[in-house]
4'-phosphopantetheinyl transferase
Amino acid sequence: MIISKESVTAIHTDIQAIGIPEEELSALLSDDERVRIDTFRFEADRKRFIMRRGLLRRIIGETLDTDPTRIRFATTAVGKPVIAFPENSGLWFNLSHSGDQIAYAFSGHAETGIDIERIRTVEGIDRLARNYFSAEEYALVVNLPAWEKNKAFIKLWCIKEALIKASGWSLEHGLLASDVAAQYRMTRFNVQFGESLTLTCVTPVFDRICGYATALAIRLDDNEPLKLHRYTLQNGEYIDF
């Protein structure tokens, strides 16, 4: 697997199938990440944090030819993680997790976002859609048959999360900054976010993951084509998705 700043690389894995020992990934973590481990109440959550952060460090270290333990992260005002060291790396990333599933996105664009959401029963869908979706998105959800509502709501939420994460906006201000009702059944589209930002969205990113919605969003330069490479990590090997 080769990550290039001239393209977008999306990686999916299940922590049960990574094939890299937990101790090996744990050894890559920083002191502050080790402190965070102790804040988790359940052992499963501790393991998930170790695996996704350790793997993130390993991937970035291999890409930038840097010792993974020396990598330092910072966060924006709304908590979006960025690479602070090595400085001016030109590499941007985003990650999302749902249970044991992890999704990463890497590119040469700061406005890159990815989201993964387990499709599940959501209580009070109509109320949530009315409060957090546009009028068109709300109408789409409430007019669907009951068996399709959960899937539609989670898919829309996943798309909007990816767009928000790419934009760098807060969730509070970003939920109503776009309307994707018209693109609900599309797999790749451009969408206006706020007044001046146009983002390209792909959904699903990983279409063979059963029971999960996935979405990727990125701001491309004018007339720049989307070059997307997808991999799944299984037993220590990156396999073309």
Remarks:
- The chain has a mean pLDDT of 95.
- The chain is about 30% helix and 30% strand.
- The longest strand covers residues 8-14.
- The chain has one domain: 8-240.
